[in-house]
């Protein structure tokens, strides 16, 4: 089975093609996959001027980037023997239907030369949420159009489940090589940390999800970005905070400010990072007033902030492992690329003698490969799916537990 994945939940325009098959062994059937192609076009540089993602700009850029990316992905994919019964009429109908809501996408499609040749694709996987709804709608609209033109089923995917599956990907084989997902002993705990989410999820048999805890306000990635802005650092803030923190560690710079470890002593598995950001704001204002807001101050405060976040996350993760008797841990989302967090999470696995599955840096951020693989893993359940492509809706607040 060949699956096209489409991901436009935030500021990365991503497409991927995978082929899957089932193999039989002593333990039953196992899914194998090979990556045909995976492309990600980042808009981060464009959004840096705004200090964060600007939804209207994200929508426009997705509309411009999807067709050129698909053109690249389809170049080496064989064309099927299926024929269009009425390609020109269908395309004209599509233009009229979608031109008003997404003129940029339709304009880009008008100049595409590959649509009339139906590719050997069996399913289209598209992110339906959570994320920025204007951005999500571009990917959904694109999936609908391709599904209608090529008569291919379109399957909606939860973005956060994509991050769970992304952590099961192996990273030691080149594109085109058949491989298997990592083993995941159950029950497992997933800690999903990104710009928009901080969640602890319990994973049971058949990938049934239940919520253990979540942020009450800012997500951890959002907190990194806001603190970076307070320190005068570019967007996205996470890598810049991490760089300053590492320099503070190397140069043995200690922050004069002790930041709080929010909700670390609460009796639940929820998080809160808004107050931590406010504490950084007050520290910066005080340093500016006293003329001590220099590079050493920034490095020390960045290190202290990173340590605060790390201690809270590892404490709550440890608590979740003990609460449910977890046999494995999954870490997913863009913030998982932070090297300090990766080291500390690995040590938690060693402490409890359970595997900690981390995504490779290449798939820790948003990508379409993980979206396509969700559809591959859930293939049997989707055969009875009654939803049609036109019924798929962008859901900016969709939960993985829905």
Please, could you describe this protein's structure?
By secondary structure, the chain is α/β, with parallel strands linked by helices. It folds into 2 domains: 207 residues, 2-Layer Sandwich (Nucleotidyltransferase, domain 5), CATH 3.30.420.40; 167 residues, ATPase, nucleotide binding domain (Nucleotidyltransferase, domain 5, 2-Layer Sandwich). 43% of the residues lie in helices and 19% in strands. A hairpin with a 4-residue loop joins strand 1 and strand 2.
Strand content range: 15-25%
Principal-axis shape equals globular
State the helical fraction: 40-55%
According to CATH, what is the class of the largest domain?
Alpha Beta
- Give the rounded overall mean pLDDT: 91
Distance between the termini: 27 Å
CATH superfamily of the largest domain: ATPase, nucleotide binding domain
- Poorly predicted runs are none
* CATH architecture descriptor name of the largest domain: 2-Layer Sandwich
Per the CATH scheme, the topology name of the largest domain is: Nucleotidyltransferase, domain 5
CA-atom Rg in angstroms: 22 Å
Count of folded domains: 2
Largest sheet: 6 strands, mixed
Describe how the helices and strands are arranged:
Layout (H helix, E strand, L loop, with lengths): L1 E6 L4 E14 L2 E15 L1 H4 L7 H20 L12 H12 L4 H8 L12 E7 L3 H18 L3 E5 H8 L12 E2 L7 E6 L4 E7 L3 E7 L5 H11 L6 H14 L23 H16 L5 H30 L3 E5 L6 H14 L3 E2 L3 H4 L4 H9 L1 H4 L20
Parallel strand pairs: 1-4, 4-5, 7-10, 10-11
Antiparallel strand pairs: 1-2, 2-3, 3-6, 7-8, 8-9
Helix pairs in contact: 2-4, 2-5, 3-5, 6-13, 7-8, 7-9, 7-10, 8-10, 10-11
